[in-house]
């Protein structure tokens, strides 16, 4: 047989995980530049007739609207991801996300087209949220289901690492344009990070098209194990797991968006820091998190995914008050130390194992749907309007203590939820995962781990 007719060698797990990482980095870059723009630009550009407080609230509200479309995206992409394949859905989600972000960068402001400007912004944000709702589950499954036995924690951390990497990339983009004079920044400078997304999407698509379909999906398809209605079947088999995942992710999602959006606004408008210093602090924290996510994912393969997530959930809880205390010192060093503590150090033990923990709870026939729906339910309940709630609480009480109290309640819910997830603790959990859940292509969880039957 000639070389041209020879069967292409399947992509290795590291190549697939790297492709998932690059793709999610690009998608979260798109999603996060909106959060930064919502804090620094949109109140003036799209809500100029509102008071500064109301403009900020309205801007953060459009930020939250994107989360409302996430569950629908999770259901639709999950359905077809469980029916026709993970890879095809990831190509569609990345393309759609890039189109929405590019159009945002070209959107005229209120001064040009009036009320139509914030309306179109909201529509594009909804479309963007729909696309990212299908992104996380598919990217995670591609990495986890290609991973070798006993390594799903490590490889599953790659797509999740795209979140802080995307944050870092988005922050760098805004740091660059923030050096422009105020008038230039508000008129055209802020658009450049949005327009740059088009180039990143082309790169991401080239990488994603080069990887193979998930072996777990291929095995289910070849055996005729695909289900007609994955959503119905996911809720029939795993109702408890879906809602426990939503509660488990709550603090991670809320604190991530509080860090990258609300704290940037809070530090510049309340504490009095320069926006460049605030963005630099978020960037440094995101870089640290990007390094620690895969480290924590690897540790989970030895000490257990549930155990690592629980450690992270507790760490986030105890870091909330010190973070605000440091930021309220009004110094650049205090702000940087605060966001590094919360986003760069406390969050990685949980975030690094999110993909492998959440996806492996579900049987492979409904894994895309189950993981995506649980994850996106949490996005609506928590991160969607977290910056808006935090802004309103500070306005009502005039102190960050109200915001801290809100975040502590959220963090406590996550601690309880992860404790209630099925499965053991520590090395016994890791050994069981390696022997059972992580075997072969990650087939259907055993009763003692999934808690169903």
Average residue-wise pLDDT: 77
Number of strand elements = 0
Highest-level CATH class: Mainly Alpha
Return residue spans where pLDDT drops below 50 for at least 5 consecutive residues. 1-8, 439-453
Element order, helices and strands? HHHHHHHHHHHHHHHHHHHHHHHH
- Shape call: globular
**Radius of gyration (Å):** 21 Å
Roughly how many Å apart are the termini? 49 Å
Kindly report the CATH topology: Growth Hormone, Chain: A
- Oligomeric state as shown: single chain
Q: Approximately what portion of the residues adopt beta-strand conformation? A: under 5%
Superfamily (CATH H level) name = MFS general substrate transporter like domains
Proportion of helical residues: over 70%
Assign the structural class, choosing from mainly alpha, mainly beta, alpha/beta, alpha+beta, or little secondary structure. Answer: mainly alpha
CATH architecture descriptor: Up-down Bundle
Question: What is the count of distinct domains?
Answer: 1
| Number of alpha- plus pi-helical segments | 24
Sheet with the most strands?
none
Pfam families: Sugar_tr
Keywords: Cell membrane, Membrane, Transmembrane, Transmembrane helix, Transport
Domain Major facilitator superfamily (MFS) profile: 16-429
InterPro entries: MFS_dom (IPR020846), MFS_sugar_transport-like (IPR005828), MFS_trans_sf (IPR036259)
């Amino acid at each position: 047989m000639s070389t041209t007719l020879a069967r292409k060698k399947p992509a290795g797990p590291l190549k697939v995980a790297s492709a998932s990482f690059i793709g999610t980095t690009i998608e979260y870059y798109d999603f996060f530049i909106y959060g930064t723009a919502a804090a620094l630009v949109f109140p003036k550009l799209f809500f100029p007739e509102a008071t500064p407080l109301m403009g900020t609230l309205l801007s953060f509200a459009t930020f939250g609207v994107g989360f409302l479309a996430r569950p629908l995206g999770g259901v639709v992409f999950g359905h077809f991801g469980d029916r026709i394949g993970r890879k095809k859905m990831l190509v569609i989600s990345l393309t759609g996300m890039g189109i929405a972000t590019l159009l945002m960068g070209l959107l005229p402001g209120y001064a040009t087209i009036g009320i139509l400007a914030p309306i179109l912004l909201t529509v594009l944000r909804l479309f963007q949220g729909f696309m990212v709702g299908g992104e996380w589950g598919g990217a995670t499954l591609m990495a986890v289901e290609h991973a070798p036995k006993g390594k799903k924690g490590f490889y599953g951390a790659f797509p999740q690492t795209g979140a802080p990497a995307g944050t870092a990339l988005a922050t760098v983009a805004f740091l660059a344009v923030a050096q422009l004079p105020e008038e230039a920044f508000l008129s055209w400078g802020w658009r450049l990070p949005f327009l740059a997304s088009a180039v990143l999407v082309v790169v991401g698509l080239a990488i994603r098209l080069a990887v193979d379909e998930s072996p777990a999906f291929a095995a289910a398809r070849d055996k005729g194990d695909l289900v007609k209605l994955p959503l119905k079947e996911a809720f029939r088999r795993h109702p408890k797991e879906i809602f426990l995942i939503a509660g488990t992710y709550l603090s991670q999602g809320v604190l991530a968006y509080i860090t990258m959006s609300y704290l940037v606004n809070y530090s510049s408008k309340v504490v009095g820091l320069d926006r460049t210093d605030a963005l630099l602090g978020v960037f440094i924290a995101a870089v640290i998190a990007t390094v620690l996510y895969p480290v924590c994912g690897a540790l989970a393969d030895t000490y257990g995914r549930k155990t690592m997530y629980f450690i992270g959930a507790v760490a986030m809880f105890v870091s909330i008050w010190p973070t605000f205390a440091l930021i309220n010192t009004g110094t650049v060093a205090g702000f940087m130390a605060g966001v590094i503590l919360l986003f760069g150090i406390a969050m990685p033990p949980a975030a690094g194992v999110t993909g492998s923990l959440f996806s492996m709870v579900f049987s492979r026939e409904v894994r895309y749907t189950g993981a995506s729906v649980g994850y996106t339910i949490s996005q609506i309940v928590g991160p969607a309007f977290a910056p808006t709630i935090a802004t309103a609480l500070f306005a009502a009480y005039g102190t960050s203590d109200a915001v801290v109290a809100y975040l502590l309640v959220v963090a406590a819910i996550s601690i309880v939820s992860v404790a209630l997830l099925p499965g053991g603790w520590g090395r016994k959990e890791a050994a069981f995962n390696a022997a059972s859940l992580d075997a072969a292509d990650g087939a259907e969880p055993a009763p003692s781990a999934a808690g169903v039957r």
